Amino acid sequence: xxxxxxxxxxxxxxxxxxxxxxxxxxxxxxxxxxxxxxxxxxxxxxxxxxxxxxxxxxxxxxxxxxxxxxxxxxxxxxxxxxxxxxxxxxxxxxxxxxxxxxxxxxxxxxxxxxxxxxxxxxxxxxxxxxxxxxxxxxxxxxxxxxxxxxxxxxxxxxxxxxxxxxxxxxxxxxxxxxxxxxxxxxxxxxxxxxxxxxxxxxxxxxxxxxxxxxxxxxxxxxxxxxxxxxxxxxxxxxxxxxxxxxxxxxxxxxxxxxxxxxxxxxxxxxxxxxxxxxxxxxxxxxxxxxxxxxxxxxxxxxxxxxxxxxxxxxxxxxxxxxxxxxxxxxxxxxxxxxxxxxxxxxxxxxxxxxxxxxxxxxxxxxxxxxxxxxxxxxxxxxxxxxxxxxxxxxxxxxxxxxxxxxxxxxxxxxxxxxxxxxxxxxxxxxxxxxxxxxxxxxxxxxxxxxxxxxxxxxxxxxxxxxxxxxxxxxxxxxxxxxxxxxxxxxxxxxxxxxxxxxxxxxxxxxxxxxxxxxxxxxxxxxxxxxxxxxxxxxxxxxxxxxxxxxxxxxxxxxxxxxxxxxxxxxxxxxxxxxxxxxxxxxxxxxxxxxxxxxxxxxxxxxxxxxxxxxxxxxxxxxxxxxxxxxxxxxxxxxxxxxxxxxxxxxxxxxxxxxxxxxxxxxxxxxxxxxxxxxxxxxxxxxxxxxxxxxxxxxxxxxxxxxxxxxxxxxxxxxxxxxxxxxxxxxxxxxxxxxxxxxxxxxxxxxxxxxxxxxxxxxxxxxxxxxxxxxxxxxxxxxxxxxxxxxxxxxxxxxxxxxxxxxxxxxxxxxxxxxxxxxxxxxxxxxxxxxxxxxxxxx
Length: 842
Known about the structure:
This protein is of the alpha+beta class. The protein is globular and about 100 Å long.
């Protein structure tokens, strides 16, 4: 069977262990209580795009699309042709803790009358699709109508073990004249603990043509009834349902709905780095620092982060810091509170809260489908770490003899540069532990001065490697991933050359026979298969670490290439860099304009350059990392030891709104999984590339110069245009432009022959950009919702249909247009094309 597939592959969804089989009586009690819950409408939140691991369309569809609503929930649109149905299958990992009697509910409507909708569920890819037993499927009307698939109606005790697919089949009305161009839209897909209403079908409705995958409707098995002697249990319990079982069932269902075993795995990009130590931390009236802590990252804060467009949080600086590390930092500034990368142990900081409060924070994030990653600092610990007492052998050290052990500390530091003295009571000696005086090496990057608040770990010691693996496996049960600090320093050749130059390779190979990261990543992913490893790395080690198993690696060279291009006005170096890297490498890269180690983007780029850089950051393959304060235009670069900023900076509202709208506009699936192809231009100041997946084509053009630039971008073969077609180019960046005078328009229409032969002629203001969604003219305009989400006014304030239509076609949802207005809009586009057949910007 041939399929026209549109899929956005993301990581699979972890599922909870299947609950134990209840006794028949317990099931009956719960079912009876659920009967009284129908009026409560207890339901899970609507499914987001990230709930589904795959979305496919098949059949003879004239239009097919999935999109995200303003609250990031999934919407599906289907339009069958005259010759047969259009089917959407949505694959996800079925949660094993869904209560008996639950239903998959949704709402459906048709823009025009004359369409049938059939629903079904498939347990696994090889299994048949089990369709809702109503025959024939009901007719979708022009108003939103709730419907559902009752799971136990489909199959008794139905609970897929691995994968389930939700199927929607839209079929044409046999009387096609009344349903020409009919399109059905489905939204608010969710689990609900209520039985579905039996659809009422009009008389005389004929059964629609079935899809290939839905050959036959399967009748629903009879639901077993449970009996007490002479009395049905449901009748016996009817009088007590509302008094006793209703509250109990409500509690049970709420626990099932919010249980942390059913976390859904999502994409990482865009990723928001939050410095937890500075979040709502302030000085009180007595000038005493009051940490905000885990409790201060409230559900409202997390919801605002999610609504801004982020999919993941990096909670930086959560680990405990020892008193000596804090004291050392205060020698440099009185308001320093120690480095969060010189940790005492892998337990959460007492300044920020308890471990349970941290777990509650993670749960709040997961409830909003925000992934959480934390720091893993493999190179070193704080110089007062508890590990130095318990396992001093885990560190690079020298054991002093008795003649040196009584010398003053300052004299010992002069004798052994780069080391500090440590007197441990438990140094291993044979089968016992004895007191020893050690000179422990400071932690360091081999090419910089030592970090004098840290102690260097020794990866040639097998006990240390196992200890770090145990740490990763422990936290893999709590969070979704780790950002590994200076990950390249754990590579075998780095450990040998910089930590053990005295050993021969033969001796070193016996101590460290394999790469630590390979073993650690495999171990952690056995605990949590979807645990994410992100490496901070330099020295061109990115590809090597990706080969060892890292999901993502820093891309500092891309940051430098963007800086050079935007400050020189010449993009050749950046374009050559993109051609060299390619899509597959970039997909596993983390791109940034700033982070806690880099200078503030506002200081490096300013406002206008930063907008151009952000346009590239959010449209290139890979993970876009934004730093705490970047969206607000903060300029103060705080050392990680400082917890309260020196200056209270006002928010840069223009930049903040720009970032929010850009993240929304670039949330289309093509920006996550589409191939990237660098394009050629006759103007060296222009950066140009395409992003293409099975359903969408996007063209990105950025002016890196501080002067207005003109030129042509050659689109073939990267954009894969088809001759004989006219293409509409919808500019997602139009609303971000500071200058919209002259010929600048929200969209353009071009004949394919012109684009293929001559390329696309553009004129861009300084640091301006185009993000064109390229669609065949006359096809469904998939950017209508994207353009709607770009507008901040639509995003922030609800406005009615009349007001949206008054704003113009580019800002009106297709569902808000009457049939005649939609036809008039198509006619107007045709008139624009006729008036300007070449499609040039004049």
